[in-house]
Amino acid sequence: MTKTVKGMNQVVGRLGVLTKRVAKVGIIAFGVALGLVTREFVNFDQAITSSSAKFGDLNLATAKGQKQLKALGKIARDVGAATQFSATEAAQGLDYLAMAGFNVEQAIAGLPRVIDLATVGKIDLARATDISSDALGAFNMMVKDSSQLQTNMTRINDVMAKTITSSNTDLEQLFETIKKGAPAFTIFRMSPTFVSLYIIVISFSFLGAT
Protein backbone atom coordinates (compact mmCIF):
# COMPACT_ATOMS: atom_id res chain seq x y z
CA MET A 1 0.00 0.00 0.00
CA THR A 2 2.85 2.34 0.90
CA LYS A 3 4.60 1.67 -2.42
CA THR A 4 1.38 2.39 -4.28
CA VAL A 5 0.88 5.71 -2.51
CA LYS A 6 4.53 6.64 -3.09
CA GLY A 7 4.19 5.77 -6.78
CA MET A 8 1.07 7.87 -7.10
CA ASN A 9 2.78 10.79 -5.40
CA GLN A 10 5.66 10.54 -7.86
CA VAL A 11 3.25 10.55 -10.80
CA VAL A 12 1.40 13.57 -9.39
CA GLY A 13 4.73 15.32 -8.86
CA ARG A 14 5.81 14.67 -12.42
CA LEU A 15 2.46 15.87 -13.74
CA GLY A 16 2.89 19.04 -11.71
CA VAL A 17 6.31 19.69 -13.23
CA LEU A 18 4.98 18.93 -16.71
CA THR A 19 2.03 21.26 -16.19
CA LYS A 20 4.35 24.07 -15.13
CA ARG A 21 6.53 23.50 -18.19
CA VAL A 22 3.52 23.49 -20.51
CA ALA A 23 2.22 26.65 -18.86
CA LYS A 24 5.61 28.30 -19.26
CA VAL A 25 5.75 27.37 -22.94
CA GLY A 26 2.20 28.65 -23.36
CA ILE A 27 3.10 31.98 -21.77
CA ILE A 28 6.16 32.32 -24.01
CA ALA A 29 4.10 31.46 -27.11
CA PHE A 30 1.44 33.95 -26.09
CA GLY A 31 4.09 36.59 -25.56
CA VAL A 32 5.58 35.95 -29.00
CA ALA A 33 2.14 36.08 -30.63
CA LEU A 34 1.30 39.28 -28.79
CA GLY A 35 4.59 40.79 -29.90
CA LEU A 36 3.89 39.91 -33.53
CA VAL A 37 0.39 41.37 -33.35
CA THR A 38 1.69 44.54 -31.71
CA ARG A 39 4.43 44.91 -34.32
CA GLU A 40 1.93 44.44 -37.17
CA PHE A 41 -0.36 47.04 -35.59
CA VAL A 42 2.52 49.51 -35.30
CA ASN A 43 3.62 48.84 -38.90
CA PHE A 44 0.05 49.32 -40.13
CA ASP A 45 -0.39 52.52 -38.16
CA GLN A 46 2.86 53.91 -39.55
CA ALA A 47 1.93 52.93 -43.12
CA ILE A 48 -1.56 54.43 -42.99
CA THR A 49 -0.22 57.61 -41.36
CA SER A 50 2.43 57.92 -44.07
CA SER A 51 -0.07 57.45 -46.89
CA SER A 52 -2.63 59.85 -45.43
CA ALA A 53 0.00 62.59 -45.27
CA LYS A 54 0.50 62.35 -49.05
CA PHE A 55 -3.12 62.86 -50.12
CA GLY A 56 -3.56 66.44 -51.23
CA ASP A 57 -7.29 66.43 -50.46
CA LEU A 58 -6.95 65.10 -46.91
CA ASN A 59 -6.82 67.56 -44.02
CA LEU A 60 -6.67 65.80 -40.66
CA ALA A 61 -7.57 69.04 -38.89
CA THR A 62 -11.13 68.75 -40.23
CA ALA A 63 -13.96 66.33 -39.51
CA LYS A 64 -13.97 65.35 -43.19
CA GLY A 65 -10.26 64.56 -43.02
CA GLN A 66 -10.74 62.31 -40.00
CA LYS A 67 -13.56 60.52 -41.82
CA GLN A 68 -11.32 60.04 -44.87
CA LEU A 69 -8.55 58.64 -42.67
CA LYS A 70 -10.95 56.09 -41.21
CA ALA A 71 -12.08 55.14 -44.71
CA LEU A 72 -8.47 54.60 -45.81
CA GLY A 73 -7.82 52.43 -42.77
CA LYS A 74 -10.98 50.44 -43.42
CA ILE A 75 -10.18 49.61 -47.05
CA ALA A 76 -6.65 48.56 -46.07
CA ARG A 77 -7.96 46.30 -43.29
CA ASP A 78 -10.67 44.89 -45.57
CA VAL A 79 -8.07 43.97 -48.19
CA GLY A 80 -5.91 42.43 -45.48
CA ALA A 81 -8.81 40.35 -44.19
CA ALA A 82 -10.07 39.18 -47.59
CA THR A 83 -6.82 38.45 -49.45
CA GLN A 84 -3.38 36.93 -48.93
CA PHE A 85 -1.95 40.43 -48.60
CA SER A 86 -1.60 42.14 -45.23
CA ALA A 87 -3.34 45.33 -44.16
CA THR A 88 0.09 46.96 -43.94
CA GLU A 89 0.83 46.07 -47.58
CA ALA A 90 -2.54 47.54 -48.53
CA ALA A 91 -1.73 50.74 -46.63
CA GLN A 92 1.60 50.93 -48.46
CA GLY A 93 -0.30 50.52 -51.71
CA LEU A 94 -2.42 53.53 -50.79
CA ASP A 95 0.83 55.42 -50.26
CA TYR A 96 1.89 54.78 -53.86
CA LEU A 97 -1.52 55.81 -55.18
CA ALA A 98 -1.30 59.06 -53.23
CA MET A 99 2.14 59.78 -54.66
CA ALA A 100 0.79 59.08 -58.16
CA GLY A 101 -1.80 61.81 -57.74
CA PHE A 102 -4.88 59.86 -56.71
CA ASN A 103 -7.24 61.56 -54.28
CA VAL A 104 -8.68 59.65 -51.31
CA GLU A 105 -11.83 58.54 -53.11
CA GLN A 106 -9.90 57.37 -56.17
CA ALA A 107 -7.36 55.47 -54.07
CA ILE A 108 -10.04 53.66 -52.08
CA ALA A 109 -11.75 52.59 -55.30
CA GLY A 110 -8.48 51.77 -57.07
CA LEU A 111 -6.70 49.65 -54.47
CA PRO A 112 -8.86 46.51 -54.87
CA ARG A 113 -8.32 46.69 -58.64
CA VAL A 114 -4.62 45.93 -58.18
CA ILE A 115 -5.11 42.69 -56.22
CA ASP A 116 -5.42 40.43 -59.27
CA LEU A 117 -2.34 42.02 -60.86
CA ALA A 118 -0.31 41.43 -57.71
CA THR A 119 -1.52 37.84 -57.51
CA VAL A 120 -0.80 37.02 -61.16
CA GLY A 121 2.50 38.89 -61.05
CA LYS A 122 3.51 37.13 -57.82
CA ILE A 123 4.67 40.36 -56.19
CA ASP A 124 3.59 42.25 -53.10
CA LEU A 125 0.57 44.52 -53.28
CA ALA A 126 2.49 47.73 -52.67
CA ARG A 127 4.83 47.08 -55.60
CA ALA A 128 1.93 46.10 -57.86
CA THR A 129 0.20 49.37 -56.97
CA ASP A 130 3.34 51.32 -57.79
CA ILE A 131 3.63 49.60 -61.17
CA SER A 132 -0.06 50.04 -61.96
CA SER A 133 -0.10 53.77 -61.21
CA ASP A 134 3.16 54.39 -63.08
CA ALA A 135 1.85 52.47 -66.10
CA LEU A 136 -1.18 54.74 -66.16
CA GLY A 137 1.15 57.70 -66.43
CA ALA A 138 3.25 56.03 -69.14
CA PHE A 139 0.19 55.61 -71.34
CA ASN A 140 -1.11 59.09 -70.49
CA MET A 141 -4.18 57.54 -68.84
CA MET A 142 -4.08 59.51 -65.58
CA VAL A 143 -7.24 61.63 -65.61
CA LYS A 144 -9.07 63.73 -63.03
CA ASP A 145 -12.45 62.11 -63.58
CA SER A 146 -12.71 59.37 -60.93
CA SER A 147 -14.97 57.07 -62.93
CA GLN A 148 -12.76 57.22 -66.02
CA LEU A 149 -9.64 56.75 -63.91
CA GLN A 150 -11.02 53.52 -62.45
CA THR A 151 -11.91 52.32 -65.94
CA ASN A 152 -8.39 53.11 -67.13
CA MET A 153 -6.84 51.39 -64.14
CA THR A 154 -8.89 48.24 -64.65
CA ARG A 155 -7.92 48.22 -68.32
CA ILE A 156 -4.19 48.69 -67.75
CA ASN A 157 -4.11 46.04 -65.01
CA ASP A 158 -6.03 43.54 -67.13
CA VAL A 159 -3.71 44.10 -70.09
CA MET A 160 -0.57 43.70 -67.97
CA ALA A 161 -1.92 40.57 -66.29
CA LYS A 162 -2.79 39.06 -69.67
CA THR A 163 0.62 39.97 -71.07
CA ILE A 164 2.62 38.23 -68.36
CA THR A 165 0.45 35.11 -68.54
CA SER A 166 0.72 34.98 -72.34
CA SER A 167 4.40 35.71 -72.83
CA ASN A 168 7.87 34.86 -71.61
CA THR A 169 8.08 37.86 -69.30
CA ASP A 170 7.27 38.75 -65.71
CA LEU A 171 5.67 41.89 -64.32
CA GLU A 172 8.95 43.60 -63.46
CA GLN A 173 10.33 43.00 -66.96
CA LEU A 174 7.09 44.23 -68.50
CA PHE A 175 7.22 47.36 -66.37
CA GLU A 176 10.79 48.08 -67.46
CA THR A 177 9.66 47.83 -71.09
CA ILE A 178 6.78 50.20 -70.40
CA LYS A 179 9.06 52.72 -68.68
CA LYS A 180 11.61 52.71 -71.50
CA GLY A 181 8.95 52.92 -74.18
CA ALA A 182 6.77 55.53 -72.46
CA PRO A 183 7.92 58.48 -74.63
CA ALA A 184 7.16 56.55 -77.83
CA PHE A 185 3.82 55.32 -76.47
CA THR A 186 2.79 58.92 -75.82
CA ILE A 187 4.06 60.35 -79.12
CA PHE A 188 2.51 57.64 -81.28
CA ARG A 189 -0.54 57.22 -79.03
CA MET A 190 0.01 53.51 -78.67
CA SER A 191 -2.65 51.75 -76.63
CA PRO A 192 -1.79 49.32 -73.80
CA THR A 193 -3.36 46.52 -75.85
CA PHE A 194 -1.13 47.27 -78.85
CA VAL A 195 1.98 47.32 -76.68
CA SER A 196 0.89 44.08 -75.00
CA LEU A 197 0.48 42.32 -78.34
CA TYR A 198 3.86 43.64 -79.47
CA ILE A 199 5.57 42.29 -76.34
CA ILE A 200 3.86 38.91 -76.69
CA VAL A 201 4.92 38.60 -80.34
CA ILE A 202 8.51 39.60 -79.54
CA SER A 203 8.56 37.16 -76.62
CA PHE A 204 7.43 34.22 -78.75
CA SER A 205 9.79 35.22 -81.54
CA PHE A 206 12.65 35.14 -79.06
CA LEU A 207 11.60 31.70 -77.84
CA GLY A 208 11.40 30.45 -81.41
CA ALA A 209 14.87 31.79 -82.16
CA THR A 210 16.35 30.04 -79.14
From TrEMBL:
Name of the protein: Phage tail tape measure protein domain-containing protein
Lineage, opening ranks: unclassified sequences, metagenomes, ecological metagenomes
InterPro entries: Phage_tape_meas
NCBIfam families cross-referenced by the UniProt entry: tape_meas_TP901
Domain Phage tail tape measure protein: 76-190
Keywords: Membrane, Transmembrane, Transmembrane helix, Viral release from host cell
PANTHER family from the UniProt entry: FELS-2 PROPHAGE PROTEIN
Record field: transmembrane: 187-207
